[in-house]
Amino acid sequence: MVTDHAGVETAVQAMKLGALHYTSKKPNMGTLYTVIQRELRQVNLRRLYLEENSKHYGKLIGDSPEMHRVYRQIARIAAAPSHILIQGECGTGKEVAAHEIHARSSRAGQPFVAVDSGAIAPGLFESELFGHEKGSFTSADSLHRGRIEMAGEGTLFLDEITNLPLEAQAKLLRFIEERSYFRVGGEELFPLRARLIAATNRDLKQEVRAGRFRQDLYYRLSAVVLEMPPLRAHQEDVPLIAGYFLSRMRGQFSSRIEGFTAAAERALMQYHWPGNVRELRNLVESGLLYSPGPRIEAHEIVFHPLSEGGPEFFTGLMEKSYAEAKEELVKRFKREYLAALLARHRGNISQAACESGIARSSLHRMLVEEGIPH
């Protein structure tokens, strides 16, 4: 508070009403600057504390210890100038985390440019990333600004970086080391001004050992690593995340769905979520579309785990012995088959038993053993 009335009583009253500092209209500018800086630091610390202890962190949702670990790490690394590697299974929110890092950094007002590394044809990698000059090759009819140039002083997000072929990895490594680049066919040297955030759903160390990823590039990218946990590692967040998606998407479907029944929530909690948060979002969308309401019932939830034996299906199994992995797969199959069977017949056990060839009493017993609401 700045005032001509610099009396002690006025100062005390102002502080009681919430003033952070009290000074005359002719303050010592050095002292005033110090006070402002101190208060700004306190405000930022309070904001960070509230965010890190909240159920939401921007668009990242979760109140589990696993997610609060992620929030704290993002708060630390956002202010650093280092390049960042985000690792995590498909659907864990790697790009969302990259956006949150960008939003909390000094680059927040600059562009965030995402590149799907797997979608770039090998021969076009340089042109897409660095840009090209008009006439630099047959189809180069005009100057093309690359993604790095478009990012400016912001953030360049390289998604699924392990999809890059080795030749493209070598070019990326040289660019990172030299911190500069030429457009294809150009002679002007451009500096790297953006921060790189790379992401992968694979084990990069394993990819290096298999010869599919350059070791030197791995060391360049892995100075700062953020691990995004799979949803099964913070299962307690499932109802919270499902509720968030429900409230966000309800208006799009003109739906009056209020939420999930207790039995439906139990079903969500007991599923192992191979597709992680993305799978949960799709399931909520399906519920909003098909459930008559007012709450989504357990028998209306239809899980769609990968039946093709894709990499997510084997998540966490390769570290187990054959016998242990087989036992877990059989358990997963049993639970998912029964849940899908019951959903198909909208909770009618008699119809489900008839179609599956399982005696009704046996099917009822199996549902109880697996904890499947019916």
Written account of the structure:
Helix 1 links the parallel strand 1 and strand 2. The protein has 374 residues and is of the alpha/beta class. It has helices spanning 8-16, 29-52, 65-78, 94-103, 125-130, 147-151, 166-178, 204-209, 215-221, 238-249, 262-270, 276-290, 322-344, 349-356, 360-370; strands spanning 2-3, 23-24, 56-57, 60-61, 84-87, 112-116, 131-132, 144-145, 155-159, 180-182, 189-191, 195-200, 225-227, 259-260, 295-296. It folds into 3 domains: 2-52; 56-227, 3-Layer(aba) Sandwich (Rossmann fold); 232-370, Helicase, Ruva Protein, domain 3, CATH 1.10.8.60. Residues 48-52 and 307-312 have low confidence and may be disordered. The protein is 46% helix and 12% strand. The chain starts with a strand and ends with a helix.
Keyword list:
374 residues; alpha/beta; Rossmann fold; Helicase, Ruva Protein, domain 3; two-stranded parallel ribbon; 15 strands; globular
Break the fold down into its secondary structure elements and pairings.
Elements (H helix, E strand, L loop, with lengths): L1 E2 L4 H9 L6 E2 L4 H24 L3 E2 L2 E2 L3 H14 L5 E4 L6 H10 L8 E5 L8 H6 E2 L11 E2 L1 H5 L3 E5 L6 H13 L1 E3 L6 E3 L3 E6 L3 H6 L5 H7 L3 E3 L10 H12 L9 E2 L1 H9 L5 H15 L4 E2 L25 H23 L4 H8 L3 H11 L4
Parallel strand pairs: 1-2, 5-12, 5-13, 6-9, 9-12, 14-15
Antiparallel strand pairs: 3-4, 7-8, 10-11
Helix pairs in contact: 3-4, 10-12, 13-15
